[in-house]
Amino acid sequence: MFEELFMAQRGVLLRTLQRMVGNRSTAEDLLQETYLRVAAVVAERPLEHMAPFIFQTARNLALDHLRSRQRQARLIRDDVTEELLEQVPAESASPQDILENQQLLAQLDKALAGLSPRQQEAFMLNRLYGWSYAEIADHLAVSLSTVQKDLKLAMALCVTTYAKLERH
Fold it and tell me: pLDDT digits over 42-73, tens only?
């Protein structure tokens, strides 16, 4: 069960991790670490919601990696002059990554266009501006339950769209 679910989600997980850490090799390492950690937990006890647990574990590992990288960068910055830092070229995305991201955004835009204006606004306020469900409910003059349902639908559309692109 776990192995099948993990393999089915592997591509989505890898792209998510790659987007978070900005490096495919590191993303693959984090994906492997995710597998090992979740497998160890599954060996100890059954998990009722395995897919979210896998994604949360991967996310936490990526965040830990990014924090570690920030600490290392601070240490290096303290030892390196600002002039030398300015000479280091910025990392840029590959043309293929840019194209894939543009295609993903176009498909997500198309999918979200099928939502009602209220659902679109709730999604935008939450995901782009970081508003809480309560703030959105007050702003839109709807119940908290309505906001939860609207955002659940919008996220389901995003996940479905992403999964469809993953299969191609």
Answer: 888 888 888 889 999 999 999 999 988 888 77
Same domain assignment for residues 137 and 117:
yes
Domain count, the chain: 2
Of the three residues 86, 114, 129, the one that is the final residue of a domain is 86
**Which of 101, 111, 141, 79 minimizes the C-alpha distance to 18?**
101
- Rounded CA-CA distance 168/154 in Å is 22
pTM for the full model? Answer: 0.46
pLDDT in tens, 14-33: 999 998 888 889 999 999 99
The residues, any chain, with a CB within 8 Å of residue 132's CB and separated by 6 or more, are 126
Helix (H, G, I), strand (E, B) or coil at 70: helix
pLDDT band at 138 (very low <50, low <70, confident <90, very high): very high
Together in a domain, 15 and 80: yes
Q: How far from chain centre, in Å, is Cα 73?
A: 23
**DSSP per-residue letters across 95-164:** HHHHHHHHHHHHHHHHHHTTS-HHHHHHHHHHHTT---HHHHHHHHT--HHHHHHHHHHHHHHHHHHHHH
